[in-house]
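Order emerges. One example.
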Amino acid sequence: MNTEQSSGKTAVRGVFSTQEVRKVGTGTTTRKTVQKMYWFIEQRGNELDCQPLNTNYVPSGPKRKITMEELISKFSPEPEFYMNSVFPKIQELEQAVNKADEHRQNGDTFSAEYEYSRALKVDVDNVRANFGIGLTYLERGDTDKAQNIFERLVKLDNAFEAEHKHLFNDFGINLRKNKMLAQSLEYYQRALDLSPQDENLHMNMARVFLETKDIAKCIEHLFKALDIAPGHENSVKFLAWLSQKNLIPDVQSQAVKERVKAALALMRNQNKTGGAGKAAQDEP
């Protein structure tokens, strides 16, 4: 187990185990077996994230929250196992993903694909590796392979966490640019299910609905963005652009004028506020 000092408190980061006694067989052949499970536990502020280890000894799969009381009463520290087996594997995985990211940023997509594939053999659910190889396929225009990654990513709750927002947003934009519009909508809707109060996600949904020529739904999501953040500048600009292009349906015309007028008045009378932790916007 590793501990780090932060603001006078000891932060927990390491491998712990639990044991579960199970009965196997029936009648006179019944016997008890002890199943040992290993978990990677990391403290984030006042919360503890608990994640199982996969067969390659790296944290993988869904995380759950536990309390410090649960940690103390139900888990046993495994410092030697962490240092000798788990920590080296985590480093190996991170190095492969870092190398892959570097190749992708340099435009060497085939080397990037090789390194991402190596990482995914260690942890098939690694978020950065999945995003990276998906972006590699999209940048190459290989939509069939990108579709397989898309199907994997939309099932990973961890993919839509704040720490992955920039990758998450790049992937959504590239889905749209590759005309994978149905996938892009499903992808952003999945994110909205997890972060319904993110105005920039609604903005991104609006951008895709513009591509599908569903202007009514495009405007609906821009309104939702303004419901969350009444002074959301890019949504106002988007609505103004739609108006200039005469794309506003008559039934929504008056509502759009009122929303734009109210938002402009608000923007003039208050300082701009940031959107920390929220998805970056797709370009208008």
Residues 48 and 71 are 9 Å apart (CA to CA).
